[in-house]
Amino acid sequence: MSADLVIIGAGPAGMAAARVAAEGGLSVTLLDEQERAGGQIYRNVGAVAGRGWLGADYARGGALVQGLDHPGITHQPRATVWRIDARRGVIWSRDGQSHVSPAAHVLIATGAQERPVPFPGWTLPGLMPAGAAQILMKQSGMVPDEAILSGAGPLLYLVAAQMIAAGAPPVALVETPTAITHALPKLPRALFGLPTLIKGLGLIARIRAAGIPWYRGAADFRAETTEDGRIRFDFTTGKQSHSLTCDLLLTHLGVIPQSHLTRSMGLAHEYDAEQGAWRPTLDPWGQSSEPHVFVAGDGGGIGGAEAARAKGALAALAILHQAGKLDAAGRDRRAAPLRRALSRALSLRPFLDAAYSVPSAFLAPPDETIVCRCEEVTAGSIRKAACTGAEGLRLMRTSLRTGMGPCQGRMCETTVIGLIAEATDRPASTLGPGRIRTPVKPVTLAEIAALGPQPEETT
Amino acid sequence: MNAASRFRDAPGAAPRSLRLMLDGVPVLARPGESVAAALLAHSGGATRQTPVTGAGRAPYCMMGVCFDCLVTIDGHPNVQACMVSAREGMVIQRQIGARRLGDQP
């Protein structure tokens, strides 16, 4: 089953691209790790009824999922891509068996992951990213009980409002320093995103109205398990120390592109200083340094769901043109409204990036913090190694095994870079991105061997 | 290890009609939810102990990134519980330390 276009990721970018490409006459294989299309933002949207408390923005993803109902689209759920091979195609695994999908064109739409928020105690049961709690709300009908929301960024406000609406308001909102005043010069452009801005202010108003204790300018995070299995959360605001107890401590400091797949292909990447993360280098259509490989959505730079939808459609138009199904004039005509939508969707981003930048204590946390969760390497040992010659990611990996565990550095790379940058007084932009090798998700040797030297298409 | 769950049911949540076994103890799950979600609804405690220091860990990212939710499911070790849907009769074991090669079914 060969397809003209293989899309990886069924979030807003992948779903929008699949529909446009299929309507334009291409056969599309849509590979996604989840059981249902939607990505993280619209997780489970096709299957959920009566969850009004999640809000109208979430429900809007339903139309994109319905758009996949097209004879040209084959949706492969539970498909974990572990390698993209320039010659063979996209290699993916399901139920312990790997398959190869050859494709003339590839669109990578793997989205974002949460930025790691390391501090002493962040590995304990009872601590999770706020986005993880949202996944549980969307997919399992579970709401955090006696939870504290901490960190910074618009998602915190949204999760707080959803928890209030579900009848389980957070115990407290503990916000790290924001730079709203510093971000004010970016506000004029942000006004093009006025509806989103108003929505954000509405969320803040709801949190205030619910009387949630709100701590601002918080620092020096530390979590411990109490004797009865709860979480004691210590932090400071200015010179004041605070100690709160909760059942669940949710953290959030924004999201970063999931770039393991694009990096494993050796595509060109660049450092985005505003977002503090690497992203693949793309042209305005999402074309990467490899002409037949496109990237759309948050995996190509954080822009949110509406931007991802527009970028997915734009990439599909460029692929239709590349495949000879759409002339340049038609492509450009159809792209114009998408570019306007994209510009609107991105208008708020510079303001948000400046207002909710990551405090340096979370890029280079205190010595006792476990940085590499898999290999349990502390910030102290990384600092020490950086001062004694391990001045890069590879040297650190070979001396301390950071990034060598099953997550392959997804949870520690930003912090290891932050610590090396601090110890060697070099900018983070010169220290990455780390080199990623396939398989980008663990597969057994038996599964790889079963593919054979020159595998035929297996499905 | 069996602290009370750190989550409660949302308004209108479907009943937990599936039955899984965790180390010999029944765990209820909702159709469509992941094994990790069922484990978090069952208990707020650890679902594995790390190979390096033996520290307790529980499902963390819920989207396949962190690998802290590794469990043994129906004899298969090192399965990401957040990426597998709960099914009736699943047999799950917490993982204490590293898996050995002989553990592979």
UniProtKB/TrEMBL annotation, chain A:
Task: Provide an example Pfam family for this protein.
Answer: SO_alpha_A3
Q: Which domain of life does the UniProt lineage start with?
A: Bacteria
Q: Which Gene3D superfamilies match?
A: BFD-like [2Fe-2S]-binding domain, FAD/NAD(P)-binding domain, NAD(P)-binding Rossmann-like Domain
Is Membrane one of the keywords? no
Q: Which GO terms describe its molecular function?
A: oxidoreductase activity
SoxA A3 domain boundaries: 371-450
For this UniProt record, the keywords arranged alphabetically read as follows: Oxidoreductase
Q: Which residues form the FAD/NAD(P)-binding domain?
A: 4-312
- InterPro entries reported in the protein's UniProt record: BFD-like_2Fe2S-bd_dom_sf, FAD/NAD-bd_sf, FAD/NAD-binding_dom, Metab_Enz_Cyan_OpOx_G3PDH, Opine_Oxase_asu/HCN_bsu, SoxA_A3
Q: Which PANTHER family match?
A: ANAEROBIC GLYCEROL-3-PHOSPHATE DEHYDROGENASE SUBUNIT B
Recorded protein name is: Pyridine nucleotide-disulfide oxidoreductase
Source species of the chain:
Gemmobacter lanyuensis
Q: What is the lineage of its organism?
A: Bacteria, Pseudomonadati, Pseudomonadota, Alphaproteobacteria, Rhodobacterales
TrEMBL record, chain B:
Q: Which Gene3D superfamilies match?
A: 2Fe-2S iron-sulphur cluster binding domain, sarcosine oxidase, alpha subunit, N-terminal domain
Annotated keywords: Oxidoreductase
Gene Ontology MF annotations:
iron-sulfur cluster binding; oxidoreductase activity
Q: Does the keyword Oxidoreductase apply?
A: yes
Q: Does the keyword Oxidoreductase apply?
A: yes
Protein name per Swiss-Prot or TrEMBL? 2Fe-2S iron-sulfur cluster protein
